[in-house]
Design goal:
Residues 355-448 form the CobW C-terminal domain. It catalyses: GTP + H2O = GDP + phosphate + H(+). Keywords: Chaperone, Hydrolase, Nucleotide-binding. Helix content is 26%, strand content 31%. It is an alpha/beta fold. The protein folds into three domains: 3-209, P-loop containing nucleotide triphosphate hydrolases (Rossmann fold, 3-Layer(aba) Sandwich); 223-344, no CATH class; 355-445, Hypothetical Protein Yjia, Chain: A,domain 2, CATH 3.30.1220. Strand 6, helix 8 and strand 7 (182-185) form a beta-alpha-beta unit. Helix 3 (72-84) packs across helix 10 (258-272). The protein starts with 6 loop residues before the first strand and ends with a helix. The structure holds guanosine-5'-triphosphate.
């Protein structure tokens, strides 16, 4: 399917009360000839925002899981899947995220999940900013800085509440954090529609073509253990650990290769998005379900694993096995079963620290191979903290300018227009947390010819 046939998706984000719903209503009530499906990702109070969204012709879907960042992906995949069954009813999708969410996992869904990326293309991320409150919000919450960092367009809203001088100061603060975003000032989110829809800020086809093998998103679990088990009864034994409960998904027929573990992790992400059933010690663990092991009791706690025929069991757990000294024991022999394979996952996001942009500008050409190696290494080491990468590069021997784009670890370079008489130069912007400007500039300089 070509990118033209895919449904464009705009992610609308912004802190609580910044004006997301106001902008959404504005978009929905304007004459733009598009049929827009809206996905609301509201925290807690399901249904309330739907009532505030006008225009009954539009389809509104709600995601129930709200703010728990890493379950968002599973939930979003489910909602988008349902939406595809009514493909003839709409030609654009707007996802409004909760004011408390980091938009990263939502954006990553469109790069990671193949079913989703074959049908949808992420058009851009629009972040609403409350001009009167963003200064305080940035100091207090990571999420608000991440929302600013991810934006292709920042709508600096509620300009009526702030003086022009204060707006100028604010704009330069936001610009420091995210140098590649477009900033539009607005009152009551009144912005020309073409500044927020159909931006083509992400060129997904190119990104998918050059998709690096490894994009590590955040997962709702930290650990997977695979055990090779014969038919029989087993116990999953835990000792006291850092949490009085722990989420778990057990999958039968779990393979051990990296690819099979990734497949298992994707199924588990979806299962984790469903509400967990609690399980107290002594009970049997069901397969393919999100469960919550209750671990309040003192001492050892054991749960039953029934195996009807020999299989490999994958346990996808919220915490690592080590934290609870978790073991699998064959019941009748009282024998511990060795762990075959384990895999650790990037769990949730880290907090605080500073978000900023780094810009590198150098005249001349780069060696493409060196640049690729450097960029690959930089993003695999620091990709968690690098939210977006964008820029123009001059490849030696190439008449065209190269466009670079990235979200976390995933990056792409595409040929763009010819340089012609323009001086050949490189301009790169990284937006992220705790970036080391000097180190990055030195790394880049080594790629120059
Ligand atoms: N003074 C002023 N108020 C505004 C402006 N834009 C929106 N509002 C008001 O701000 C309040 C919050 O706006 P919403 O659009 O509901 O904000 P939201 O981001 O959807 O809020 P949450 O759903 O809580 O995250 C509403 O009462 C709006 O009428 C503006 O430019 N100026």
């Amino acid at each position: 399917m070509s990118i033209k046939d895919k449904v464009p998706v705009t992610i609308l984000t912004g802190f609580l009360g910044s004006g997301k719903t106001t902008l959404l209503n504005r978009i929905l009530s304007e004459e733009h000839g598009k049929r827009i499906a809206v996905i609301e990702n509201e925290y807690g109070e399901v249904g309330i925002d739907q009532g505030l969204v006008i225009n009954a012709d539009e389809e509104v879907f709600e995601m129930s899981n709200g703010c728990i960042c890493c379950t968002v992906r599973g939930d979003l995949i489910r909602v988008l899947g349902n939406l595809m069954k009514r493909r003839d009813k709409f030609d654009y999708v707007l996802v409004e995220t909760t004011g408390l969410a980091d938009p990263g996992p939502v954006a990553q869904t469109f790069f990671m999940d193949e079913e989703i990326s074959s049908e949808f293309t992420l058009d851009g991320i629009v972040t609403l900013v409350d001009a009167a409150h963003i200064d305080q919000q940035l100091g207090r919450s990571d999420e608000s800085s991440e929302q600013v960092a991810f934006a292709d367009v920042l709508v600096l809203n509620k300009t009526d509440l702030v003086s022009d001088d204060a707006l100028d100061t604010l704009e330069s603060r936001l610009r420091d954090m995210n140098r590649m975003t477009r900033i539009i000032r607005a009152e009551n989110a009144k912005v020309p529609i073409e500044t927020v829809l159909n931006l083509s800020a992400f060129d997904l086809d190119q990104i998918l073509k050059r998709r690096p093998t490894f994009l590590e998103p955040e997962y709702p679990f930290e650990w997977t253990g695979v055990y090779d088990l014969d038919a029989g009864k087993y116990e999953l034994m835990l000792e006291e650990g850092p949490d009085p409960e722990m989420s778990l998904v057990a999958l039968a027929n779990q393979g051990e290769s990296e690819e099979e573990l990734k497949d298992g992790s994707e199924s588990s992400v979806r299962l984790y998005a469903e509400k967990a059933n609690s399980l107290v010690p002594g009970n049997t663990i069901p397969y393919g379900e999100h469960i919550n092991l209750k671990l309040e009791d003192k001492g050892n706690k054991s749960f039953i694993l029934n195996i009807e025929k020999p299989t490999k069991i994958g346990l996808f757990t919220q915490h690592t096995a080590e934290e609870f000294n978790m073991k699998v024991i064959k019941s009748d022999e009282n024998k511990e079963i060795p762990l075959n394979t384990e895999r650790f996952w990037q769990a949730e996001h880290e907090h605080d620290d500073e978000v900023g942009s780094i810009a590198i500008e150098r005249f001349g050409d780069v060696d493409p191979e060196k640049l690729n190696t450097w960029m690959g290494r930089l993003l695999s080491e620091k990709g968690v903290d690098i939210f977006r990468t964008k820029g123009f590069i001059s490849y030696s021997g190439n008449p065209r300018r190269i466009v670079f784009q990235g979200v976390h670890m995933l990056f792409t370079a595409q040929p763009d227009k010819e340089w012609g008489n323009e001086p050949r130069r490189n301009q790169l912007v990284f937006i992220g947390r705790n970036l080391n400007e000097k180190e990055m500039q030195e790394g880049f300089d080594k790629c120059l010819i």
